Amino acid sequence: MTTVQDTARPVGALVRRWRERRRISQLELSSQTGVSTRHLSFVETGRARPSRAMVLRLSESLDVPLRDRNHLLVAAGFAPAYPQEPLDSAAMAPVRAALRQVLDGHSPNPAVVVDRTWNLLDANAAIGVLVAGVSPALLEPPANVLRIALHPDGMAPYIENFGEWRAHLLARLRRQVEHTGDPELAALHTELLDYPCDQDDPAVEVPGPGVIAVPLRLRHEGDELTFVSTVATFGTPLDITLAELVIESFYPADRATAETLARLAAHT
């Protein structure tokens, strides 16, 4: 993500920064975009100004997030190309309806919708099983699902494999920071690292015998519930808000968990 300071940088410096973040050479980028290495070098050093079409082509090839493509366009002297409609706007009504259909369709399994910084935007009723012991303060808007998961007043005391789950979430967030360069996500990662953990924290995600995914093993009212999660996004978004929405769903990893979820849903 481009910071406030970055918006004052020449477009060439921003292009070079994204190219280096993606760890590709000017030659590779030239091959992908059809822009000569000589012209790319001139753009990055400020000796040439890219056209609007070239900025968009380079952004697409470098997999630059939509909000940062706008920053590149502005830095090059052009108007932003990508809108950012509030989720509660009239234009986003079909999106809200789709989200509600997905969330309700996942019941009795928990599911949440988050934004790019992991703030909770919506959830289904089944999320109550995950946050049953969480401090109300952590659930106050804007509630952040990673804080809820890893804070000692959140889910942490109830997660049986907390070290493993913590390592999984931190690695996932770290990869997101590396991909986007987002300073808000970097600050969140630093904050979460400071939360205490009294279990072994694996340095890498290596499966044990018979393990196919990192599970979430949660104590709930004397039972141990085991989940695997899936992540979904909207396809081919052209709006920043839409591009940054993520739906995460938790599915039972064993029959006992499925039966408990069904029982809890029947009593709500």
UniProtKB/TrEMBL annotation:
Residues 15-69 form the HTH cro/C1-type domain. It comes from the Bacteria. Gene3D superfamilies: 3.30.450.180, lambda repressor-like DNA-binding domains (1.10.260.40). SUPFAM superfamilies: lambda repressor-like DNA-binding domains. One of its GO terms (molecular function) is DNA binding. InterPro entries: Cro/C1-type_HTH, Lambda_DNA-bd_dom_sf, MLTR_LBD. This is Helix-turn-helix protein.
